[in-house]
Design brief:
Radius of gyration: 37 Å
Low-confidence stretches: 1-22
Shape: elongated
Distance between the termini: 52 Å
Number of helices: 10
Structural class: alpha+beta
Strand content: 5-15%
Order of helices and strands: HHHEEHHHHEEHHH
Oligomer: single chain
Number of domains: 1
CATH architecture: Up-down Bundle
Number of strands: 4
Length: about 400
């Protein structure tokens, strides 16, 4: 009986320490954002894309041509001709190109934001898995102690002739099963920690949390959907892509206008010199043919992608919202039916009053510890669903 009381005390203390552990979830997320190599590469790519977007928006390079022609016969004299020409578009074309360059910089920012969201979302789910595995490791440790104590009890019963070998073998097999579950849990935990190290740029992170981070309960579906869409980098990227397609169509229309050229011409022949201004324009017949049709098709495709994303996003948010609501109700019902803080005391009381034998006590205690494992899984599913709904806050 004293052994059972000691085991019960250790179980309760372990559960209390398990529930009171502190969380460094935010610190790990900040470290991942700081150290992730893919995110660092994405930042450099965004910088390069912003610089590239500002190229090619000015006029063409000026042209300088010199011709020196030798006359024949000799008294015909030599001819020298100098031509400097600058081609340029109308001012509204350059204005439109600057607008496109600005949108190109915005697009690179949106791409970076989407890459950041994906990486932090993966890190968040990974940390949630580690919290679950840490909680489960604590449970398996306590459950293993219960089965080990039961094995010792059956060995004593066998030595006194009060029990048979079959009961001892059953206790040993159940103890072995728990040890195997604990070993698998530890292996899964190590794999998650290695993934966390990889996503943190190869820098190890110490993360022993057994408490999930606090996520706010979602409000109504409509307000949640509005908040998620307002912070959705993929939606913002698609909107910028549509604006780009629209501006490209406008630019294609402007490029149907003639291109101008101006310059200076100098000519020298037989001691006579001629010089003056040069002016001209291009006839936009062939170079931009079909561009407007292509740009209109690109705009239609951008509209289709944007509408498709909004529809799919709405369905995805609806599904995640319904899932977290269902899991929340199931978790609440499970907790009401399973008063984990009072179960151990009731089991001990029943044993001390002689209502159960020690074997029955250990069986019932193991049964409720199995329910605790199911409760941990349900909590993990609910918190993971809640974390997915809160990703717009990242």
């Amino acid at each position: 009986m004293q052994t059972i009381k000691s085991l019960l005390t250790a179980t309760l203390l372990g559960w209390l320490s398990h529930c009171c552990s502190q969380s460094n979830f935010s610190e790990c997320m900040a470290a991942v954002e700081r150290n992730n190599q893919s995110l660092l590469a994405a930042r450099k790519s965004a910088d390069a894309a912003r610089l590239a977007a500002r190229t090619g928006i000015g006029p063409e390079d000026p042209e300088l041509a010199i011709q020196y022609l030798f006359g024949s016969p000799a008294d015909a004299g030599d001819q020298l001709e100098l031509l400097a020409v600058q081609r340029f578009d109308l001012p509204m074309v350059y204005h439109k190109k600057r607008q496109l360059a600005d949108l190109g910089g915005v697009l690179s920012e949106r791409s970076l934001a989407m890459e950041r969201r994906q990486i932090l979302s993966a890190a968040s789910q990974l940390l949630m898995n580690i919290v679950f595995l840490n909680r489960q490791a604590t449970l398996f440790s306590r459950q293993e102690a219960v089965w080990a104590n039961w094995v010792n009890h059956e060995e004593r019963q066998l030595s006194r002739g009060a029990s048979g070998m079959l009961a001892l073998r059953k206790a040993q097999m159940q103890h072995l099963e728990v040890r195997q579950l604990a070993a698998k849990n530890q292996l899964a935990l190590q794999e998650c920690l290695l993934q966390l190290k990889g996503i943190n740029g190869g820098v190890p992170l110490v993360f022993r949390d057994t408490v999930y981070p606090g996520f706010p309960d979602p409000a109504s579906l409509d307000s949640l959907e509005q908040a998620i869409e307002a912070a959705d980098p993929e939606l913002q990227q698609l909107e910028v892509e549509r604006q780009l397609a629209e501006q490209h169509l406008s630019l294609a229309s402007l490029q149907q206008l003639p291109q101008l050229e101006a310059g200076y011409r100098h000519q020298s022949l037989l001691g006579q010199r001629y010089h003056g201004l040069h002016a001209g324009l291009s006839l936009p017949l062939w170079e931009n043919k079909g561009k407007r049709a292509a740009r209109r098709a690109e705009l239609a495709a951008a509209d289709a992608r944007l509408n498709a994303h909004r529809q799919e996003h709405h369905a995805s948010i609806q599904q995640m919202y319904d899932r977290q609501k269902l899991l929340r109700d199931q978790l609440s019902t499970f907790r009401e039916a399973f008063d984990q803080d009072g179960v151990d005391l009731l089991l001990e009381k029943a044993y001390l009053l002689g209502e159960w034998s020690s074997r029955e006590y250990f069986q019932e205690l193991a049964f409720y510890q199995e329910r605790r494992r199911q409760l941990l899984e349900l909590e993990w599913e609910y918190m993971s669903a809640l974390a997915r709904l809160s990703e717009y806050r990242l």
